Amino acid sequence: MVKNAINRIYLFIIFLFLYAPIMVLIVFSFNNSKSRSHWNGFTLRWYIELFQDPVIKKALFYTIAIALLSSLIATIVGTIAAIGIHSFNDWKKTLILNINYIPILNPDIVTGVSLMILFIFARIKLGFWTMLLAHITFNIPYVILSVLPKLKQLNSHLYEAALDLGATPLYAFFKVILPEIRPGIVTGALLAFTLSVDDFVISFFNTSSGVTNLSITIFSMARTGINPKINALSTIMFLTILILLFIVNIRTSKEVKEEKAK
Amino acid sequence: MKRRFLAYPYLLWMLIFIVVPLLLVLFYSFTTATEDGFAFTLDNFKTFMQPIYLKVLWRSLALAAISTIVCLILGYPAALILSSRQMSRKSFLLFLFVLPMWMNFLLRTYAWLTLLEKNGFINTILSVFGIEPIQLLYNDGAVVLGMVYNFLPFMVLPIYSVLKKIDPSVIEAAEDLGANQVTVFRKVIFPLSLPGVFSGISMVFMPAVTTFVISRLLGGGQYMLIGNLIEKQFTAVYDWHFGSAVSIVMMVIILISMGILSKYDNDREGGGLW
Q1: What is the pLDDT of residue A68?
Q2: Out of A18-27, A61-70, A194-203, B98-107, which region has the weakest mean confidence (pLDDT)?
């Protein structure tokens, strides 16, 4: 009994450590003063100013645009590549997969710096497109690693049966292979999207001052003087994630229930 | 089925955006700029061997090691409690560990800035008790705190997932054979959880060694870890050759430590690093 209480207190302290900064951030986003320690009454003005701030608005636009484009392109290229890689089966496959692992295992800063050297070496101006290319590059490996296991589970005779029954290869792909590997593709796409939204280090090295995502904006704001608008922004982002996770959770638990009902 | 050609576009992509950039880093690290191009040199690595830079390397490794140990000390009991049979609402508690990771990691680090500042939250509370403001920011402690805060879930989750898989009948057998709780932990639970400990260590140590954001925000503008050293070479000093050499050194250190950890892992359990 005593041990159980101690366990609970220990977990509570750990959670306090993990959540105290986030809670303080949220509370002071409603503070009617620039101070981050003295409470001066409730206000929503930082939320209003947040959406009038051109820098933050632009950063939000670039973050979402890059995340959508890079995850979309990475998902398409990665899925097609995974199908191709799956049909290799010797040392070449091992080599390809090992190179594919490099962006995942390499420190972000090395990936960022090496791509920056490439772009400048090739005389490509840093900006939106270089950031997009960098994001696609670190996203594709995750898509491939999510799709490959699904391809392994796939019964290859299904595809052949479809061809025997008169389907064109393309038709057979969309009707037979794609539905089977869809869960892997969706996982890969979601992973790519979140990684892209969250990325700071690689974006930081592969963009110019005009094109910044939210992480870079937060980084430069935190250095030059902290603004309650960042608190408001983080509160919105935190709540968005909470709501999204909640919805996903409900949907999956529903699916589990339906599975059990069967 | 001959569908290999489908991989060719990506193979080209890998060549251009993964292999060539790394070769360029390698190339820059072994060269220096001359009037008519590049010349081979080892000077960049020799420069790094100077005490001032070795000190930066040493500090990075030491702080990352301290953060990893603190994460292990704080995280292991948490994982143990989470996996214990009496704990109810396990999946919710696990969710609470993962949730902060979904928040932008710069924001989480920035949150500590507001807590630790001279006129921040903690010092304000202290002043209520008549304690003079303490300099909590811009020192080694603040950087370690930031690392532990950011990477603690990476330690808890792998250990938890290994502990959860331990067959309860093994523990019951040990108890039946007369082992007390301490012996059960020392002889059964802990050895079986080592693969989780090793993957936790690598998941905390790697990002901690390479970070430049935590050290910049919580350590201040002059604070130097190896990540900051690389960043400075590319964004402020524009010495790509030296920056590349430091990057190569860092990559080699990461590769060696990953090799050592995965060897330990394989000796005991088999299977990959993660």
Answers
A1: 95
A2: B98-107
Contact list in B for residue A122 (CB cut-off 8 A) is none
Query: What is the token pair recorded at B113?
Result: 């800035």
Rounded Cα–Cα distance for residues B44 and B47 (Å): 5
Q: What pLDDT is stored for residue B125 in this prediction?
A: 80
Local confidence band at A55 (pLDDT 50, 70, 90 cut-offs): confident
Q: Dig out the tokens for B56 from the structure.
A: 């930066």
- Ordered structural domains, chain B, with CATH: 51-268 (1.10.3720.10)
Spatial separation of the C-alpha atoms in residues B155 and B163, rounded to whole Å: 13
Half-sphere exposure of B14 (CA within 13 A, CB side): 22
| Cβ within 8 Å, pair A106-B251 | yes
> What's the CATH number of domain A53-226, 2.30.30.240, 3.30.450.40, 3.40.50.150, 1.10.3720.10?
1.10.3720.10
Q: Which of B23, B91, B97, B110 to mutate to test the interface with A (most CBs of A within 10 A)?
A: B110
What ipTM describes this predicted complex? Answer: 0.84
With a CB cutoff of 8 Å and minimum separation 6, the contacts of A195 are: A138, A139, A142
β partners of residue B32: B39
Q: Is residue B133 pLDDT above 80, yes or no?
A: no
DSSP letter assigned to residue A124: P
Q: Cβ contacts (< 8 Å) between A80 and chain B: which residues?
A: 6-7, 9-10
Instruction: Return the pLDDT at A89.
Output: 80
Of all residues in chain B, the percent with pLDDT exceeding 90 is 42
Residues of chain B contacting A121 with CB distance shorter than 8 Å: 24
User: Using an 8 Å Cβ cutoff, are B137 and B116 in contact?
Assistant: yes
Within an 8 Å CB–CB cutoff, is residue B259 touching chain A? no
Mean pLDDT of chain A, nearest integer = 87
pLDDT in tens, B246-261: 999 999 988 888 888 8
Residues facing residue B39 across a β-bridge = B32
Contact A126, A206 (CB under 8 A): yes
- Whether B91 has a pLDDT exceeding 70, the answer reads yes
37-76 in B: which are within 8 Å (CB) of A?
74
Buried b (16+ CB within 10 A) or exposed e, B90-123: eeebbebbebbbebbbbbbbbbbbbbbbeebbbb
- Residue A52, number of CB atoms within 10 A of its CB: 9
Of A37, A200, A205, the CB nearest to B124: A37
> What beta strand segments (E) does chain A contain?
none
Residues of A in contact with B216 (CB under 8 A): 223
Q: Are B7 and A96 inside 8 Å of each other by CB?
A: yes
Enumerate the residues of chain A whose CB falls inside 8 A of the CB of residue B258.
105
